[in-house]
Write a structure and sequence with these properties.
The protein contains 15 helices and twelve strands. The chain is α/β, with parallel strands linked by helices and 416 residues long. The chain binds pyridoxal-5'-phosphate.
Length: 416
């Protein structure tokens, strides 16, 4: 087989069976440290790792210590970069450690972070509680806002001069609101030109995975993931990842080495296995989600369905979806009649779908964002973004779609 599609490369890229007793699958390298052939080689490996010496032509970087490099980490990172045709990837012990490391690598006191709203509750907490406590300013912008008007306001107030990082989560957790990625790049370039600055543009692409949306193609410097979700797909690990250019990744990996929050060999081994089925899983989950969304849309106990491409998202949102996504993904939020009592009634009655946070896994999961994943966000802010106590967030799995729909039906019917 000579194909170079990502689906094919996930079976072989970055690993040769001859390296490990002809084992077809990469073994698990449970070692903290690696023996050097001699002192001169050890000196050279460190010099390359710390950027003091260039790698020699055709040389494979020497293995040193599993906080700096490990075969499981490297194979996984090489395969992950393939999905977005990127130079490099960096894998972390959680999605939050990927996000916080990116922020800490590019922001210092006095700088400003431009952050879309809503975002995952943990990202919200880190930005508004931790970053602000060390003197970083945070300016939120509504995912659906007019980006030209946002640029005008940032320039009029002078705040645009402080912007060093632009971070967007799209589709947003949990409302599925979409940020126009091309429009955001235009805003980034406008601020950079106006002030002669350099702004890092990162996109949390957890919801669409690298299959349905490719932020780097729209000008982003980094795609950021909670790899706990679709990249893993089995609810059996916590991990994070960033994908982008060698230059940006050098800064991110440099900080990761010293914070020491790289993923463990076992987590990497599990993720490498998961990437083999990423495309299959996401295709099936998305196919199921389209059927589930149509069912929810016509159920009288459901007031509104938030799912990319459905007419009720509005013309502008649908145009953004059509432009930058190749499929709607498998995350559905919906408002249940009867507010919080209705949403809780639905969640408590589910039999097959698990009542649990997290998403993107093989099994369907449902939760209540208002009081669970986004509990820490001020209530008024949640409500202004349409995140009400009536909302249920559903991550659609790979089960038979009829069973998912039957479970939802028996949980919603009693609310009528
Ligand atoms: C969109 C998004 N980004 C980031 C995270 C954080 O990832 P992790 O839980 O792996 O730290 C999550 C977690 O739910 C998420 O949904």
């Amino acid at each position: 087989m000579t194909g170079n599609h990502p689906e094919s490369l996930m079976m072989s890229h970055g690993y040769e069976p001859s390296w490990s007793e002809y084992s077809v699958k990469p073994p698990l390298f449970l070692t903290s440290t690696f023996a050097f052939p001699n002192a001169e080689a050890g000196k050279h490996f460190f010099a390359v790792a710390y950027g003091k010496e260039a790698q020699r032509e055709g040389e494979i970087q020497g293995l040193i210590y599993s906080r700096l490099n490990n075969p499981n980490l490297q194979i996984l990172e090489e395969r992950l970069a393939v999905w977005e045709n990127a130079d490099e990837a960096a894998v972390f012990e959680s999605g939050m450690s990927a996000i916080s490391t990116v922020f800490l690598a590019f922001l210092k006191p006095g700088d400003r972070l431009l952050l879309s709203n809503p975002v995952y509750g943990g990202t919200h907490h880190f930005a508004y509680h931790y970053l602000t406590s060390i003197g970083v300013h945070v300016t939120p912008f509504d995912a659906t806002s007019d980006l030209e008007a946002l640029g005008d306001a940032l320039i009029a107030s002078g705040e645009g001069a402080q912007v060093r990082v632009l971070h967007a989560e799209t589709p947003a957790n949990p409302t599925n609101a979409m940020v126009d990625l091309e429009g955001l790049n235009t805003l980034r370039r406008r601020l950079e030109t106006t002030y002669g600055t350099s702004i890092l543009y990162a996109v949390d692409n957890t919801y669409m995975g690298p299959i349905w949306q490719k932020p780097l193609e729209w000008g982003a410097d980094l795609s950021v993931y909670s790899a706990t979700k679709y990249l893993s797909g089995h609810s059996d690990l916590i991990a994070g990842a960033v994908v982008g250019s060698a230059e940006v990744l050098a800064a991110v990996k440099g900080l990761r080495t010293f914070i020491g929050n790289m993923a463990s060999p076992f987590t990497c081994w599990l993720l490498t296995r998961s990437l083999e089925t990423l495309s299959l899983r996401m295709a099936k989950q998305t196919e199921n989600a389209q059927k589930v969304a149509s069912f929810l849309q016509q159920h009288p106990a459901v007031e509104r369905v938030y799912f990319p491409g459905l007419p009720e998202q509005g013309e502008h949102q649908n145009a953004v979806y059509r432009k930058q996504c190749s499929a709607p993904g498998a995350m559905i939020s919906f408002d249940v009649r009867g507010g919080e009592a209705g949403a809780f009634g639905c969640l408590n009655a589910l039999r097959h779908i698990k009542l649990a946070v997290s998403l993107g896994s093989n099994e369907s999961l449902a939760q209540h964002p208002y009081h669970m994943t986004h509990a820490d966000m001020p209530d008024a802010e949640k409500e202004s973004l349409g995140l009400t106590a009536a909302m249920v967030r559903l991550s659609v799995g790979i089960e038979h779609p009829d069973d998912i729909i039957a479970d939802l039906k028996q949980s919603l019917d009693p609310l009528l």
